[in-house]
Amino acid sequence: MHSGAITDGLGPDIRYPTGSSTTARPARTPVADPRPARNPEREDKRSFFRKLAEFIHPGPDSKDELIEVLAEAEDNEIINAESRVMLEGVIRMAGMSAGDVMVAAPRMDLIHIDAPYDEILHIVIDTAHSRFPVYERERENIIGILMAKDLLKLQRAPELNLRALLRPAVFIPESKGLNDLLREFRGNRNHQAIVVDEFGRIAGLITIEDVLEEIVGEIEDEFDIAEDAGDIFGLADQTYRVSGDTAVERVNEAFAVALQAGEDGMHFDTIGGLIAHAMGHVPKRGEHHTLGGLNFVVLHTKGGAVRWFKVSPAEPGQGD
Q1: Is 202 helix (H, G, I), strand (E, B) or coil?
Q2: For 233, which of 94, 142, 146, 199 is 20 to 30 Å away at the CA?
């Protein structure tokens, strides 16, 4: 008895005895890989150029480095100053939350549900807001949002109940990221939200304007007078932007002046409080006041307090 060789095409020859009852396996055809093979030359070529670009001009490894790159781009006239400020704002905003930019609860302008029409109208005119949280019994109990324009309905029909004009209030946690909040503001067309802390208490209020200001305004730049102070910034027109919360002593030191209160001798810790006292009323945007040889222009107010002044040396002849 002799044997014959049968090959399966995948391995060494397997010999079966001739005449055996074992049936020879048919040759198997290799199955093609459903995933097309990558072109190694193309991949290597792409990797080479990527590595070459990183070697010549490595990318930034942090937000601070990215901001430095934007400053260099402005210096090289690749982008203008306005674009750099907005891009910096977007970058910085990515790490901020609602609690960072909200109006604190004590500074919120609220309306009591049982307040008479004249009182409500007076609040609307004085604050110039478009939306007002409305509370019942206590300030913590916010029951809705009143749109200033809806007061026209109440004027035309005094028999209307103020409750019927209220819109639902939106509540968000302090930890809410500004990126997510801006997306929600744009999506649900709500431009105001009540911020609550981890215990569910009212912490403050935030609007879409507050979020956008982090992009188009109030951006820290390389013109800081002192690296450890975030309250005074030099501007391109040789004036300065000064926070209303800046200590009076800090302003005196920075501008080599001796600001002090009036003859009543009252003491104020912040420049915002001092200027408001000197003006005799809550400053409004666009108002200006000269004190101690400096001209203070109100750039931005929020919650009845000045957030930013524009400060410059007083013109000759300008008195306090």
Answers
A1: strand
A2: 94
Provide CB contacts within 8 A for 103, sequence distance 6+: 204, 205, 206, 210, 302, 303
Instruction: Count Cβ atoms below 10 Å from residue 88 Cβ, excluding itself.
Output: 20
State both tokens at 247: 């200590």
Domains recognised in the chain with CATH numbers:
99-216 (3.10.580.10), 232-313 (3.30.465.10)
Whether the full predicted model's pTM is greater than 0.90, yes or no, is no
**Distances, alpha carbon 173 to alpha carbons 102, 136, 190, 199, 232, in Å:** 11, 22, 16, 10, 30
CB 150 within 8 A of CB 120: no
Q: pLDDT tens digits for 277-287?
A: 888 888 888 88
Residue entry with tokens 């305004």: 217
Contact between 318 and 295 under an 8 Å Cβ cutoff? The reply is yes
